[in-house]
């Protein structure tokens, strides 16, 4: 099935992949069972969805979490009592599917470069496992403060079920979007449409960033057979790409003005969105923890200009550096600067940040930062594209120079920080 999906006979899983997939599923059963002890997203999502399941007429209504609702219902033996078991099974299945998708994409990517054997190297396969298991922002701020604020740059979001569920479909959307830009076949368009629907009805956040990115890429970038990009200006392409602004603006208009409550409307404003970040429940907490460590005293009420100063000149630059250390390092050590897949990943992340800091919600949902949930998914695709770029260089397997060794070290720090974060959640039942 995978070979048909990718139109590549070399995309086949080995028995070792089947074993790793089963281990990820079992590991997911343990992790997501523990998540019930944390009174956050997973607990409240299950509570709200069991209410929907109890009302069968609402179960099959299309919504942003339709796939998750149906999955937990059918895997929970079609009963409300079994829904918690079904929920854990469904999320574990999505975690295992994430590994399968990344493994299949890896084989397809390198085989298209006539380097199929590279996907089988132990170091490449180990990196994929770490990417699925432990990726996180490098934990210097967390270790210094003693407070594990899970910033939006993390790769793996364990406590939010819809983000866990959408990851395999988002990765397919990212990769097939790039393939379709190169090979505009009917099959690729159909696959892309199907994956887009799965994304939309699992968690639509990534779609918000992917749609503008794919049209911008289509309008201005051309990809050759070796995945190198070049600027390509075409009036026809630009006009087609500009057409995406029409449904995008219409969607924003509908969200802003056709809502049940005006207070919960979508607001397009940079100052308002930044202020929403400052008002988030985690920010004052980490501010006080860092103040205690650095200054020896706690500030219970830091606000206004001091809070903004801390956010822009210390907290956000530090988290950006710690969250993107590996991709940034790959960009500087790479000999293949015109990597189309890597450019697409960086562009999607840039659009994700633009959305996160220009769109926000009013009312009670303002501090939920719902327009930032595309960022972790975009970070995951960026790490995957960076790994491909890094391992595409033949010299990496012959002699590891100091810049490349530092890059490997940064990736291991990301993985180790993710494992520490996961350990904290499992054994302390806290996601912060």
Keywords:
432 residues, mainly alpha, two-stranded antiparallel sheet, two-stranded antiparallel ribbon, 20 helices, 67% helix, globular
What's the helix and strand layout?
Blueprint: H1 2-5, H2 15-34, H3 41-54, H4 56-59, H5 66-75, H6 83-111, H7 122-133, H8 140-145, H9 161-182, H10 186-200, H11 205-220, E1 221-223, E2 229-231, H12 235-242, H13 245-257, E3 266-268, H14 270-279, H15 282-295, H16 304-323, H17 325-333, H18 340-356, E4 359-361, H19 374-391, H20 402-428
Antiparallel strand pairs: 1-2, 3-4
Helix pairs in contact: 2-6, 5-6, 6-7, 6-9, 7-19, 9-10, 9-11, 11-12, 11-18, 11-19, 17-19, 17-20, 18-19
In words, what does this structure look like?
By secondary structure, the protein is mostly helical. It has 20 helices and four strands. It has helices spanning 2-5, 15-34, 41-54, 56-59, 66-75, 83-111, 122-133, 140-145, 161-182, 186-200, 205-220, 235-242, 245-257, 270-279, 282-295, 304-323, 325-333, 340-356, 374-391, 402-428, and strands at 221-223, 229-231, 266-268, 359-361. It has a two-stranded antiparallel sheet with strand order 1-2. A two-stranded antiparallel sheet has the order 3-4. Helix 2 (15-34) runs antiparallel to helix 6 (83-111), helix 6 (83-111) packs parallel to helix 9 (161-182) and helix 17 (325-333) packs parallel to helix 19 (374-391). The radius of gyration is 22 Å and the shape is globular.
